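tool_call predict_complex ligand=glutamic acid
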Amino acid sequence: MFKSKTTKIAGVLLLSASMLLSACGKDKETSGSAKNALEQIKANGKIVIGVKYDTRLFGLKNPSSGEVEGFDIDISKELAKDIVGDEKKVEFKEVTSKTRIPMLNNGDIDAIVATMTISEERKKEVDFSDVYFDAGQSLLVKKGSSIKGLEDLKKGTKVLAVKGSTSAINIREKAPETTVLEFENYTEAFTALKSGQGDALTTDDSILYGMVDQDANYELVGGTFTEEPYGIAVKKGNKELVDAINSALKKMKDNGKYDEIHKKWIKSN
Ligand code: GLU
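tool_result ok
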């Protein structure tokens, strides 16, 4: 009898203690989610950025050092310097054209700096910074190819593109008769071109220049046929973070850092 009373009391005590604990937990959660994305990045002491790992000149993992390198990487480091106070306070995660928006919206990354065109379609899913680079879609072919431009992409020709890219959508509109084959990333698409699985590869001129850098047997043809303004994407509704990114971009442009990064990676202009 006495024993069971004690057990009861202990039980009640335990219950109230656990209720108290869970209430504390809830409080913590509420104050955590009350932080906006910018405050959360500052509290974490780092910004997590989704970048390409296979795109020479923009985001390429150097197999000997294990580091990712390129225009987008240097821009990201400048963002970290301005927003978190140290260019080393950035963590890079690999994204592809297909995975970048889902990864952002899942909370895996805070921002995308990955050759990403600002488009009306994408604006429905993410928010963009100001334009930080201007590219345009073009074609890459083996030197000596009979394909000299869009007009040669007739029925029976095969064009290689990457899933989730604007290029894969645009090419169907610009060359409706050609067959479009889509790959997971640019390494796979370029490998497919080299092994003769297609007649041309299409994406931004800026990315194609990186492929020519890697293999001079290939060349760009036909000029550019779209405008691809690159923006930095964040989860929708994070105005403070977009403002902080835009202010960092403006600073980079004003103090010459942007030009320095541009000169380092982009040789064509
Ligand atoms: N800029 C284009 C896009 O955002 C092509 C490059 C890419 O696939 O990332 O889709």
